[in-house]
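All the exercises in this workshop are built on plain-text protein records. The record below serves as our worked example for the rest of this section.
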Amino acid sequence: MNSDTILSINKLVAGYGETEILHKISISVNKNEIVSIIGPNGAGKSTILKAILGTLNIKSGEIFLKKTKINGVKPSDVVKKGVGYVPQTDNVFVSLSVHENLEMGAWTIENNLNDKFEELYNLFPDLKDKKKQLAGQLSGGQRQMLAMAKALILDAKVLLLDEPTAGLSPKYRLEIFDTIQRINKSGLPILMVEQNAKQALQISHRGYVLVDGSNRYTGTGAELSADPEVARMFLGSRG
């Protein structure tokens, strides 16, 4: 394993019950990278994130966070080890304020909590202005930012994002992609599943194209964007 590799998935076979969704998938995320997983609906993109979190049946293969094997580890312990995760839906407590949501995210932190809050508010200035506002009153884009901030509060070593721009207007999609780049520039590697493939590849260092639960194409964001076959299949009208 490369010494810069933060997250490594090796020949993963996984699914739900007896149904096999992922067929010998191999993916890596290195230090300071944004890596995107794109592909058609039903390709198994979000299933990869659930496998990393330990919420589905892994039949074979290995998942490492740095040099620690994490498949077979309870989801709550995967999070404690440094995997931040933002699900596509139901990712904030709508009846709590912005600040209360961050407090809920900080359930294992005992010291220097105010410093952590200040760090996150500096990273997400939109939230700082709305810290007393109910999360349910935020725009879709601001709600996604809050979900990301919640995931980061436990000193994540890698951030998993499941369709972070789903359902957002073009304006808020751009804001979220800008936020993702800002988080990454703070030193955090990111693995992102995204349907807006063109925009995702534009900000990604590398990408993987999944088809029917298998790796079909792999390359840098620029290489995949320029690949005529990838463009024809996945980049047509999106973005």
Q: What stands out?
A: Residues 5-234 form a domain with the Rossmann fold fold (CATH 3.40.50.300). The chain has ten helices and ten strands.
